[in-house]
Amino acid sequence: MTLSAQSVSESAAVMVGIRFNGNPVKVRQGVTILEAARQNGVRIPALCFLQGTEAFGGCRICLVEIEGRPGFHASCVLRVEARDEGMNVLTDTDAVKAIRKEMLKLLLSEHPSGCLLCNEGPQCRESMLTISKSGHTTGCRFCSNDGDCELQRLVEEFNIKQEGGIGFSVRYRGIAVEREEPFYDRDYNLCVLCGRCVRVCREIGADVLSFVKRGPNTLIGAGMESTHLEAGCWFCGTCVLACPTGALADRQGKWDRATESRLTTCQLCDLGCEMQLDLRDGEVVRATPKVTGRVCAKGRFGLPGLISGPSRLYSPLARRKGVYAVISWEEAFKIAAERISAAASPGGGGFSLLAAPELMAEAKRLLSALNATGGQATLDTSARLAVGGAAALASEFKRGAEAVSAIDRAQVVLMVAAEPRYSHTPLWVGVRRAQRRGAKLVVIDAKRTRLARLADEYVETRAGGEAEALYAIASALDNQGDCSDGGQSGAVGDALQRAAALLSSGRLAAIVGATPLQYSNTAIYVEALRNLGKKGDLVGYLFPATDTAALKAYSTGAGAPAESGPALKITDLICGRAKPAVLYLAADVPFAKRPECGFLIAQDSMQLPEQLEADLVLPATPFGDQATNGSEQGAKSDRAVFAGVIEALGKASQADKSELIESSELAETSEQARAIARAAGQTEGGGAMMLVREISPLSFRGFSLDRVLVGFGNLGLSGLRIHPEQAARLGLQTGDEISLLRDGAEIRGRVVLDRTIPRDAVYAVVDPASAIPFPFVPGPFAANPCAVEIKRVRPSVNDGQDARR
Amino acid sequence: MNSAELAEFRQSFSGKKAQASKRWDDLNTGSTPVVYVGAGSCGRAAGAMDVIASVEKTTERIKVKARVLQVGCIGPCYLEPLMDIRKPGLPRLSYANVTAKKAAEIVEALLGRGEMLKPVGHFGEQAFDGIERFFDLPMMKPQVRVVLRNCGIIDPEDMDHYLARDGYEGFLKAVAMQPDQLIQEVEASGIRGRGGAGFPTGRKWRTCYEQKAEQKYMICNADEGDPGAFMNRSLLEGDPHAVLEGMMIAAHAIGASRGYIYCRSEYPLAIKRLNQAIADARSLGLFRCFPNFEFEVKIKEGAGAFVCGEETALIASIEGKRGSPRPRPPYPAVEGLYGKPTVINNVETLGTLPNILRNGASWYAGHGAEKSKGTKTFSLVGKVKRTGLIEVPLGTTLRKVIFDIGGGPINDAKPFKAVQTGGPSGGCLPEAYLDKPIDYENLAAAGSIMGSGGLIVMDQETCVVDIAAYFLDFTQKESCGKCTPCRVGTRVMVDILERIKKGDADEDDLDKLERLGETMSKGSLCALGKSAPNPVKTTIRYFRDEYLEHIRDRRCRSGVCKEFITFTINAQCTGCAVCLRACPSNAITGLKKEQHVIDTAKCIKCGVCRSVCQFDAVEVKSP
């Protein structure tokens, strides 16, 4: 996984005979003494060493002696060379033991070590299984008491306690605990400066961490006193897992002692990462990746709340006179079936179903059941709005393990508007691995993200110019032509040329972001991607919770071609043109408040927005629930809910036998929508700023994680994001309520400062809950990007809730 | 470059050199008077720029045409600002401690009225008018000036001056040799790295030369960070071409086509002059003057971290990373800048090379001691009469340097106590070592290091515990924080030393210091941590009784450690009330013209009274 690891495998053939404490062993040339020792069962303690990351050599706990050479040597960095034949490594001499002990004592003198030397230690550990961890109960709260302290193990191994303590003057740094990050606390009083977090962040993360200051003031930080969030962290949480002490600790579950753990596969995107769920009393308190780095913010910090959080829905609810009442499943199914069959029958006012892509099979089963009873229904999904024309490419996307191996094969990796922030982060591990073996990285993005500085070539475009830039490059690749004229992309010609040259230099893997699919010019994006697909592999970084298999559903799955039948278009529902008698939202809720309909059924796992005013709420289980006892409390799997409704339908409408018109239009591309967007024009009626809308990386099953889960709200995705300099020019600051005006319509939101945003643009995540409309929905904001005028409505009220960015 | 082009270059070079020599001769023997002002950073700090302004104003006023030349520092700090005047018919005369007013008088007298005010020395070959030759001054006479030969003599911004004094001859000789032959020559000279560790330069080159790589790098380490050291700055400011020429010689030896000069940004004048030198050498075609020789060099300004003088930290800094050392091996000669074989040489090493090439290895090896060949520059500072930058053959004794060159302790009543060699990472050596010849081995055996050549002289008023605490505090703050022993060990050492200074320590703490010193020396990652305990180790080794006095008797014999001292006013007091007015805590009382009294309860022991007293009436006492 690292350079060093590779050089080891390359020289695997040459074996060198060395000795550990006189005992001969054969080791591969190029391995470190520490690795060689571990392979041969020789114990050398270590602290800053972290398997799989670059050797550091800082803590000096792993010192050894080498016979005939003066001094001590850090075994984690010293490599075995051919000339070392016969070398005798001494791991256990009195001198070695003494100096290691001194090193540990020095470290302990700057680490609150009362707990490590406490006389109550054994009892404390026995009490770890009480309601919360014993430290929390007894008031000893230096660290999270997770029992996973590597210092503690060394203290025991070195017998520090029996030696009468540390012997050096202790120093408590007295630094306030940093609680600014969304998901974890940072207590640098506990930090031993092993630098593991810095190395994992550099090697598999967003590379935001570094050592700061020097001498006794040396610390870890994101530099310039910024928080991880401000520095552009992706929150994969690997640093927390790498920390050998309690300096970095998950905030949730910090004081909860897990009693068991189970494995599950995360389904928040198509990568399907293996996750370990730590449980206490059947509730998930922590989620960690099974493989280091194969995780993103959603999986790492979202799963506990998603599966066991307070926003979970557990019982069917019926709304009567504005008040929700808990009802039985039997009653719920009965109500649903009666309403649906009445609405679906001719003259009944119409029945519409919106379903999340992954529920298509179940949704179609429901339609068939209606068909059998002669009902009439329409089916659609809001994901179609997010997918744009990508459905046409569905079969070309590599997914899951295939995606990772495509990157592993590549000599050039292209990332278009695909910063793996909060989602799809494991793709980056592959890209970094590729970079280390010499592959080049080309990034095309209007946003100056962390990738800009990690790329070999960064093509910066104007807001919304990614598609054009890619199109220019792809065309140049096709005919070996010149692409220095990037058209409307706003990119520098030289950068385009260099990017094209790199892309043609070897096998390509293109990681494709979703945002340009939302642009009015998505057609050229799709065309450019189709061309690239012929030259290499396309890896979808599309939108969360929509996998490429679901994409295929739009093009092939639903059967009926676009032209047939009276169409319910999702857009009609959103802009209020369609008013079905019954609307059934199956994990697909593209509304901020109740759409116009006679009766609203909502099936989801988390609490729905209050203004949705659903008449019937069917609680479904999110994935992974089977790992816990959540299902016992009353929620049913989507499949079971649909089955219940279908069964009830059979009972309810045996009489009616009218004809079903299956009118779903899943094969339709968003050509129509794009026509709307073109008609709306890009700059007409607007101001100087371009509004760019993106699909939220946090959306799942019809809700955005930031609405229902702790911490995600602090990521600032629900705000209107502006570059700090532009904000200063406009006299705006974080938290100000502003209004984006266009053709008499407006979008309201709060200002979030974000350095990655182009200066002449404001970025917003499409989110029904905060009334940021989807592009392509007819109206003033159909075009994306579109020019808007900014007006300040109200200055920020500092309620302490403002997201920092 | 083909042979015709080579011949063309040779011809143009000798043409240029002839022209340069003519200009140089004209300067030295022509009919226009020349005023030389030592205007390095040190001279400027002492007021050289005012002197220059005053000279220019005066010549204008008395209507005499004279050239004013800014030269580098010639060495004696205690004489600064230095101004030399050459009037046709007279040798170059040197005036010391010149002020603007004095400069005007000297110029007006000599160039206006033809009257010579008495100079401190002259640069002529023969005796002149009872005035001493400048190089026969007590400070200058014992010196052997090799690397400093041009400093203070030439205008560092005028390449012709350098060329006229055989500049780039060494390089042209080197570049005509095969690299292997060139390395042999340098090996034969016996020169060892002047940055501190004393690793044989030739051997370092050979390791790098033997590496097979498309790209190699030559780095000049100009990150001089020791407090009180200014050897490299003076050389860079006084003779930048010499350093550049040395780099080019080294680059040819190892096969490097790119070079970096890592210079601390606190040396703006050095950087300016280096840039000038690089531009001049480039325009003369020296970077492309030979088949198989191509060179380009860039200056990288350091941001002021002491540890960046360590070669792996320096490399990291050039690469744009945090200046933190990494473990060696691999050594930079094998895996250096951007992973390519790299040689890093100190400014002084490089400045010496042209001389070795010009004069031959055996000439150079003729200077110095058995295992430490050649000459070495030192910055001689502290409590000596004559401070400054000096150059002596290695093997010279400390006594000769401190007493003959430096003139001994500044105050004859307060005798010599110790000398700190090698900067903050060096050791503190007592009188017993004064007669030891200075070489790498002797210093190491004494628990110190050569370092880059700082010599800080201390007299009886310096407390060894205090000085050790001072140096440790420096290394503590400059530790990069990467490895445990250096980051935490220095902090713990400072803690203990502060406790000793306050009388809160016991004898166990002394053992603890020694043990910790060993732990740090043996366990640290880089030379900074390994050598950081040296001041403590050597002071305990040579002045253990003073430590014990602090601990057992709560006494500081040097009168430095505040906890142990009291200020009193003796009978020499005239009652002038200067101290009374200066005291920040109103601790002094007394009537006019009567002996004053210090109220020890109010006294904060700041020492202001003592420094303002004209009559040595304030005494410091320790039990």
Give an account of the 3D structure:
The complex is a heterodimer of chains A (805) and B (623). With 805 residues, chain A is α/β, with parallel strands linked by helices. Chain A folds into 5 domains: 4-92, Ubiquitin-like (UB roll) (Roll); 138-308, 2-Layer Sandwich (Alpha-Beta Plaits); 317-386 and 558-666, Rossmann fold (3-Layer(aba) Sandwich), CATH 3.40.50.740; 389-553, Dimethylsulfoxide Reductase, domain 2, CATH 3.40.228.10; 681-794, Barwin-like endoglucanases. Chain A has 25 helices and 33 strands. In chain A, the strands form 8 sheets. Chain A has a 7-stranded mixed sheet, with helices on one face. Chain A has a 6-stranded parallel sheet with strand order 17-22-21-18-19-20, with helices on both faces. Chain A has a 6-stranded mixed barrel with strand order 26-32-29-31-30-33. In chain A, a hairpin with a 6-residue loop joins strand 7 and strand 8 (219-221). In chain A, helix 11 crosses helix 22 and helix 12 (360-372) packs parallel to helix 22 (638-652). Chain A is globular. Chain B is an alpha/beta fold and 623 residues long. Chain B has 5 domains: 31-124, Glutaredoxin; 159-362, Rossmann fold, CATH 3.40.50; 375-459, Ubiquitin-like (UB roll) (Roll), CATH 3.10.20; 464-553, Up-down Bundle (de novo design (two linked rop proteins)); 565-621, Alpha-Beta Plaits, CATH 3.30.70.20. Helix content of chain B is 42%, strand content 14%. Chain B has 23 helices and 18 strands. A 5-stranded mixed sheet of chain B has the order 2-1-3-4-5, covered by helices on one side. The longest helix of chain B is centred in the first third of the chain and has 27 residues, at 3-29. Chain B is globular and about 85 Å long. The mean pLDDT of chain B is 95. The chains are: A alpha/beta (805), B alpha/beta (623). The A-B interface holds A 55-61, 63, 71-72, 74, 77-79, 99, 102-103, 106-107, 109-110, 167-169, 171, 193, 195, 210-211, 213-218 and B 305, 307, 322, 324, 326-327, 329, 476-485, 487-492, 495-496, 512, 515-516, 519, 522-525.
